[in-house]
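User: For my dataset I need records formatted as: sequence, then structure tokens, nothing else. Please produce one.
Assistant:
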Amino acid sequence: MRAVEIEADSVDAAIAEGLHQLGATEQDVDITVLDEGSRGVLGLGARKARVRITLSRESSAPTAASPSAEEPSTAVSGEAMELAQNLLTDVFRHLAVPIKIEVTRAADHVTFNLVSESAGFIIGKRGQMLDALEYIVNRVATRDDAHVQHIVLDVAGYRERRRQYLEALARRLGEQVKRKRKPVQLEPMSPRDRRIVHIALQSDPALTTRSTGEGYYRRLVISPKSTGRS
């Protein structure tokens, strides 16, 4: 996935420049604030803000490394499907957790619904176990190729419940940010969860969202959008 790192006098200015370079909008990218910068004291110790902006897997912005909106994802091959299912079967056999895998296909992804009496164990804390398994399956079976359908793991309808919870949380915190005019930082989240919150708020002209921190589980910050007035 294409990414740029930008330095500017402010975080907002760095984001704007990065989006311009990528030819993308905020809904197409994952924004990580690497350094919020500092004005220093009387100009001493000042440093520029620095951000990393990465085109998301779902982005429709055309690049050489990602399919355009008109290009459908390539279906997961039968060999890759078998490899993914065998991998999951082996993992859960070693964990002594019986599962059944039900497969459904959509236009841009394939869902493996894991049927088991140990759903809570498979999901893990805030879905971290399920996310980790999904990451491994895609690395092994599809090699994270952006042109190939993504394999989604689900169990007991968790993905939909999590989406509804995060959308409600985003709306509630968004109203809080607008009321108090102060940013709110959420708990560390996976890229999938951060994107759900971002999409839930992207149409609100009074708010902006960005990721901060390093690693897979970063924090999302919801902030009041600058009016441009001093």
